[in-house]
Write a structure and sequence with these properties.
The complex is a heterodimer of chains A (549) and B (357).
Chain A (H helix, E strand, L loop, with lengths): L12 H8 L1 H14 L1 H8 L3 E2 L6 H21 L8 E3 L11 E3 H11 L4 H28 L8 H23 L4 H15 L5 H8 L9 H31 L13 E6 H26 L5 H4 L18 H9 L6 E3 L2 E3 L1 H28 L15 H20 L2 H7 L4 H40 L1 E8 L5 E6 L3 H8 L3 E2 L14 H14 L8 H10 L1 H6 L1
Antiparallel strand pairs in A: 1-4, 2-3, 5-6, 7-8
Chain B lengths: L9 E3 L16 E4 L15 H4 L1 H31 L7 H33 L5 E4 L7 H18 L5 H13 L2 H6 L10 H5 L10 E3 L16 E6 L9 H8 L1 E5 L19 E5 L11 E3 L4 E3 L6 E3 L5 E4 L11 E3 L5 E3 L16
Antiparallel strand pairs in B: 1-2, 4-5, 5-6, 6-7, 8-9, 9-10, 10-11, 12-13
Helix pairs in contact in B: 2-3
The chains are: A mainly alpha (549), B alpha+beta (357).
GO cellular component, one term (chain B): plasma membrane
GO molecular function (chain B): 2 iron, 2 sulfur cluster binding; metal ion binding; monooxygenase activity; oxidoreductase activity, acting on paired donors, with incorporation or reduction of molecular oxygen
Membrane topology (chain B): Multi-pass membrane protein
Chain lengths: 549, 357
């Protein structure tokens, strides 16, 4: 193991130039004398980043965004964000002579009259799908490894906002071509907004610039899609990454890894080569997908018209959970009271989905409150070592997955020859009961895995070799783990349920009671890390193990 | 559960000398004094490229070959741009253009990426480095200085002392964005009332039912038993301005059924004509077109959220998230035998809204 070495720091730039001469050195000197960039190189050039495949998920998200910016900029040169009616005169024969908006017509031109235009459209769309997916997986990684703990709670919130903004970018972009599918998507949004009490009718009226669909919405979404939302996203990504630099990256438990260090490769050269290369790999894979697989073939759908619709309509995947939630509402959830309509079939969806995502956002603060843990955490948890958190995550994933599956209820019914009602009722059940089941199973599995780890640490792996001792006794030979592997299994934080203690006035507050209840729920069942005494004791118990060494 | 049987001495994080960062006595973290000790880094294992000079040369060759391959890919993409032009009205040419430019670019990108990663993994030093971490919070002197600066600024400005100035400033800052909010009223036309608009459609007494999208009027005699028509009001097809807005409210589905299958309420018996019924096509859930008609069950299905409506029973909801039946358009036949509307819908069509009673 080497320690960090920095050689750039103390040399006088002028001396450096004399020594090495050459263009690179004088160019570097020229820039440094005008920017003092050498300081940044000194600070960041050998900064350590740990290596793990799961750390690449965030990188995929970042790189997808860069790909989206590049391909999107190309598209803006050709796309016309106008709903003015034109007659399509492009190369795609089946739609020739059909009136459509300039938005749809220019999207058709990008697809059928500009060389490489379809490719860029498909790169843009595929990269957008990947962007949201990568953010989602990145969030799951952060959640299940406890990377959101102090000091990273605020960065979790920033990342969460980015996830929401990514979905907003996706939806606004999806709506721009003004084709039949996107128009129906907007129609659903219009219906949703109209269902909001008091302000809904007016919000829809203002958003669409009059009655639905109007002639304003594409232009307005375009402003959001290419100006406002990307600007906020770029600013938040910059903050997100700045925090990564300030906090230094987390690392998985391993021999030599502590809460006070970070172990990995320096930015220059290894990390730069790997991360830079990875950008090109992600870009290349998106390009390959865009070369082979059509996405959003608007020419099959035709221009938006409020009357026709095709069966089996599907939103882009990341909107699925919200669309699915709408499908799961039972019939009749709407009532009129005091001359006003209360659309529970819409409100319940908005409230439940809203509560779900707000819970995701504030989860780090909830857990911090329950544990009362004010320490910084830079070593990640293996998911099994935080059984209740992992189980809550599994419950959340199950809930989301049920809603998401519901967005394809009709496709499932037709493909698997099921009744529509049967699919919906089943998914209603999995949405309500699935999370509880997932919680129980996951928690037990985590505890079992922790017990297994304990067994391995104390008694080693079962080798399968049975040996007969001279005294006639049979014993199984256990293969002990080495100390490096063992450290991975025993180094995790341990908590015990909160003990209720009266405060200075001799009282126990209601919030403390809630906290104690939650704490018990979290930590009642716990497998403590193996201690030195236990290890020594276990080794004393197993003569066969010792003789086998 | 190994909760109590491990015999180790438990202390909370707050009293643990090892946990310098723990500050709160409320923490439920357990720090045991008898924990195993971090064994430190395992010995470094050299790679094959470190041990075998031949392998190192092989990796080097692979990396620069990949970078050359990338150049080939880029050149191929440029060549494909020229060699596979888009020919008007030939979708196949679009496909080839897309495929070959894309393949060239994919090759160019992937070869750079794989080459760089391979370089990093096989040839660059694989000795890991270690950075020390420090608490994220500023050091005590820095924090003290920050507090001092704020206090000084407060004193020099009188922000805390001159409360009238401070409060009036806060007030001004709260109020000044309000005009911007008001400006957004202009997003919608000033001379229209959305509620009134939602209550009316193009249909009125005597308007002929015409085919969507051609606008051809429909004779009752042409509507055969079991058939269904997508219908718009006469005049809509020729409209320029506002056509889609009107269509989004006025679209109708016309169905002829055996009159014996229809279960009609007493006061709506006159709304159908000889088994021909007309219903709004706009879903009462969130407004998708309810365009799928199942002929033998007489059910209408909304493809967006699977609400189902029973045409035999005034299009009442039989499944799905919608609550209200599809509004019925009262129809009749004029002197020439064409289907006409008796009036507008008797209730607002489409999704529910707050002001709807």
């Amino acid at each position: 193991m080497t320690t960090l070495t920095t050689r750039e720091s103390t040399e006088d730039p002028a001396v450096g130039v004399k020594k090495s001469g050459g263009f690179t050195a004088s160019a570097a000197n020229y820039i440094d004398e005008r920017t003092s960039i050498s300081g940044a190189v000194k600070e960041l050039g050998r900064k350590i980043f740990p290596d793990h495949w799961s750390f690449l998920l965030g990188e995929v998200a970042l790189y997808s965004f860069v790909i989206i910016l590049l391909s999107g900029s190309f598209l803006t040169f050709f796309f016309q964000a106008s709903m003015a009616e034109v007659v399509y005169e492009g190369s795609y024969a089946p739609l020739k002579g059909i009136p459509m908006s300039a938005a749809m017509s220019s999207t058709m031109d990008i697809s059928f009259d500009i060389r490489g235009g379809l490719l860029m459209r498909q790169v843009h769309h595929w990269a957008a799908l990947l962007f949201v997916a990568a953010i989602g997986l990145h969030m799951l990684r952060i959640y299940f490894t406890g990377a959101f703990r102090k000091p990273r709670e605020l960065n979790w919130v920033i990342g969460f906002v980015l996830f929401i903004l990514a979905m907003a970018e996706g939806f606004t972009g999806y709506s721009l071509p003004d084709d039949l599918l996107s128009g129906n998507g907007l129609r659903i949004i219009d219906g949703l907004i109209k269902g909001i009490p008091v302000v809904g009718t007016w919000v829809s009226f203002l958003l669409f610039g009059g009655e639905f669909p109007g002639t304003d919405i594409v232009g307005r979404l375009y402003s959001l899609h290419i100006l406002l939302l990307p600007a906020i996203i770029v600013a938040l990504i910059a903050m997100h990454l700045l925090f990564v630099v300030v906090h230094k990256h987390t690392q998985y438990p391993a021999a030599g890894h502590t809460n006070q260090n970070v172990v990995g490769y320096p930015v220059l050269p290894v990390y730069a080569a790997k991360a830079g290369g990875f950008f090109f790999i992600v870009f290349g894979v998106v390009m390959l997908i865009a070369s082979f697989f059509t996405i959003n073939p608007i020419w099959n759908y035709g221009p938006y018209d409020p009357s026709p619709v095709s069966a089996g309509t599907q939103p882009d995947w990341y909107i699925g959970f919200a669309d699915g939630a709408m499908r799961l509402i039972p019939t009749g959830w709407e009532f009129v009271w005091l001359n006003h309509t209360y659309s529970l079939n819409i409100l319940v969806v908005l409230i439940v989905v809203g509560l779900f995502i707000v819970t995701v956002m504030i989860y780090p603060f909830i857990e911090a409150w329950i544990t009362g843990d004010k320490r910084e955490h830079h070593v990640l948890d293996r998911p099994r070592n935080a059984p209740t958190r992992t189980a809550i995550g599994a419950a959340g994933v199950t809930f989301y997955a049920s809603l998401w599956a519901a967005a394809s209820s009709d496709i499932m019914a037709t493909h698997f020859h099921l009744t529509m009602e049967g699919v919906i009722h089943t998914l209603q059940a999995t949405t309500l009961l699935g999370p509880f089941l997932a919680f129980l199973i996951t928690k037990r599995v985590c505890l079992a895995l922790q017990k297994k780890d304990r067994e391995i640490v104390l008694h080693g792996y079962e080798s399968g070799r049975i040996v007969r001792l001279p005294g006639g006794e049979f014993v199984e030979v256990h293969q002990p783990v080495d100390e490096y592997e063992r450290w991975k299994l025993v180094s995790y934080s341990d908590f015990k349920p909160l003990m209720l203690r009266p405060n200075a006035q001799g009282k126990i507050g209601a919030t403390e009671k809630v906290r104690a209840g939650l704490s018990r729920w979290f930590f009642e069942d716990r497998i403590t890390p193996v201690t030195q005494a236990e290890l020594d004791h276990a080794h004393g118990d197993h003569p066969a193990e010792i003789t086998d060494k | 559960m190994a909760k109590d049987d491990n015999g180790a001495e438990h202390v909370t994080a707050a009293d643990s000398p090892g946990a310098q960062l723990a500050t709160s006595a409320a923490s439920t973290a357990v720090v045991t004094r008898d924990a195993l000790v971090n064994p430190g880094f395992p010995p470094h294992r050299p790679r094959i490229t470190d041990l075998d000079h031949k392998e190192e040369r092989k990796a080097e060759r692979a990396v620069y070959t990949l970078f050359y391959v990338s150049i080939v890919g880029s050149v191929f993409a440029i060549a494909a741009y020229m060699a596979f032009p888009i020919v008007a009205e030939d979708p196949g040419s679009v496909r080839l253009n897309n495929l070959f430019i894309g393949l060239g670019l994919s090759l160019a990108l992937l070869a750079i990426g794989i080459g760089a990663v391979h370089w990093g993994k096989a040839l660059m030093s694989d000795h890991e480095g270690v950075d020390e971490r420090h608490p994220v919070r500023g050091t005590e002197p820095v924090r003290a200085r920050a507090v001092e600066i704020f206090q000084q600024a407060n004193e020099e400005s009188g922000f805390g002392r001159r409360t009238l100035i401070r409060n009036s400033l806060i007030g001004a800052l709260v109020v000044f964005p309000l005009p911007a909010v008001v400006l957004f009223r202009g997003l919608g036309p000033m001379d229209q009332d959305p509620v009134a608009l939602l209550n009316e459609t193009m249909w009125k007494k005597g308007v002929r039912l015409t085919m969507d999208p051609s606008g051809t009027p429909i004779k009752a005699a042409d509507v055969t038993l079991g058939s269904s028509f997508h219908v718009i009001p006469e005049g809509l097809a020729e409209m320029g301005h506002g056509r889609l807005e009107e269509k989004a409210k006025a679209a109708v589905l016309l169905i002829r059924m055996d009159p014996e299958d229809l279960v009609e309420e007493e006061d709506r018996k006159s709304w159908s004509y000889d088994g021909i019924v007309a219903y709004s096509k706009i879903c009462t859930h969130v407004g998708c077109p309810v365009a799928l008609y199942e002929q033998h069950t007489h059910h209408l299905l909304c493809p967006c959220h699977q609400s189902q409506f029973d045409v035999e029973n005034h299009c009442k909801v039989i499944f799905g998230p919608a609550k209200r039946a599809l509004p019925q358009l009262p129809i009749a036949v004029d002197a020439e035998g064409y289907l006409i509307a008796q009036s507008d819908f008797t209730e607002p069509v489409g999704p529910s809204f707050w002001e709807r009673a």
